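Appendix B, record 7
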Amino acid sequence: MMLANRLATGSRVAVVGGGIAGAGLAASLLFNGRARGLSLDVRVYSGGTSERTAPPAVLTPECRSRLAALGCRIPPEWRAHELRGVEIIAEGRRELLASAPGGLWVVDGWPQGLGGLEQVRDILATAASSQGARFLPRHVERVERQPPAPDAPASVRGAGSLVVRAQGSGDRFHAVALASGAGPLMGDAFFKGFKPAPTVAAVQARLRHAAPRLELAPVARLWIAPLPSVDALFLLPGASSVYALAFGPAVTPADLCQVLMMAARDGLVEEGFELAALETTRLPYGPGRTLVAPGQIAVGPAAFGHPLQMGLSETLASCSRAAVALLDGGLDVGTLERRYVREGLGELLEDAAAGARTMTWLRRAGPRAPGAFVKAQGRRTLGGTFGGGVLGLSSPTPMALLGAARWEGLREVLGSWLRTTMEPVPTAVPELEPDLYYVVDDDPDARDALTALLESTGAKVVAFADELALFCAVARRPPTAIILDVVLHWVDGLRLAEGLKQHPLTRGTRVLVMSGLNRPHVRQRALDAGAEAFLPKPVDPDRLLRILTGRVPLTPEVAPAHAPAMADAPRELSADRYAS
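Structure tokens (predicted):
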């Protein structure tokens, strides 16, 4: 029931989304309701909220305080994995932002148990359930506003005018909150004119190692603009794996895989990692514009956020403020707008806008980006009681970082007009190993046939079934040449060839691209990527050996018409063995 547009004892509230925001809002509603002498009927629709990658959780001191205030018991083993700080990387420059002792806890049980976010969600759900919340494993399609008919039974008239449609069922509520995260949102299916937080594409993955090394004081890493299509790569070490997150307007799984190969080459992650899980997702990228309607409200990442928001404090803060606003405002949209959006979220919305804008300036800052974080740490900005820093740290705040990044970005742009671009030279470049060849092909028959062919000439061959280890191998043990298939598991061969040719450590390596897609545009793309030659499948053994041995002068991709066939080429290997 409702009392003067306010929630009262017996009022029914639906929470759409069973993640941290949904469970946190349910616990906060019931906790604050009981403090006012109200007993609410809260139901959480938790269908469709799981992620295969199971991200870890980073708990800041403020986050732990908020969890405790909601009645959550924090397991002591959560403190076992503590971060020493966050390292910022851009174009070879690095700066470490240290965290205070006991500051950043990484909660993670994957792959043996639950990911960190799931563990935090579970203790919130336990706290909410102990106060009377009910969790329903159903997916919500839409929310409708349908006032009960005057002649409807009293039980229907008193059940509220909002109808939640979930998998064929329809239940009435007095208020509905959207807490489904930053993924695919309901849009107008929540309420007409709803404008949630904008989002940016992201790809997340889990990296597993056969024998991970033990780090007593691990460091998280943020790599700014490792590729044109990637705004940043975030690496968070857990107890048994590394969580990787790449984001950018057009980022793809192949982008993340290529950046991880580059990170392994540069020592940011251990060599020999296995991609145990990979999936696309979305991140909030600024503040939402229309977040409330009569009896309806959006919380957590559905309402605001930015990619540098690593902790959970902002989400839990929005839950407590949404609970107070619903209890005070109920069905009155003006009161909800004032109590929740302007007074409750004002500072958080400003931080979300600043955090999103900061990414543009960090890209422009280039090698100055790490220094912008350091300079922003020393800046003081006007902030409210609940303002926090980026990346789970106490400082810098998003507003301070935006100012520093803008200044460093302008300095870098102006400086680029006055100087000649000089590429950093590696301190030590390994010598090329003669008669060493790398073969990269996910087809075992084609891989074995090429290996046998090259070994028959006395060469040493390393065959790769998985392309993820290639960048590390080339940087540490440069081969005479790489024979690279186009169609691979994670990253296509054309992108690999391009990446090899862009880095000083691997630029001088000869690359031959082969593919069963013998089309002019594929051939041209391979040559544009830096390949010395394009070999259609099935590969001609004679032609491959002529190119590799250099016995007949060849320009890239063009063989002289009079080039004789090699009489000593191994004829026992038929050409169809080199087809994939």
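Remarks on this record: Residues 552-580 have pLDDT under 50 and may be disordered. The radius of gyration is 28 Å.
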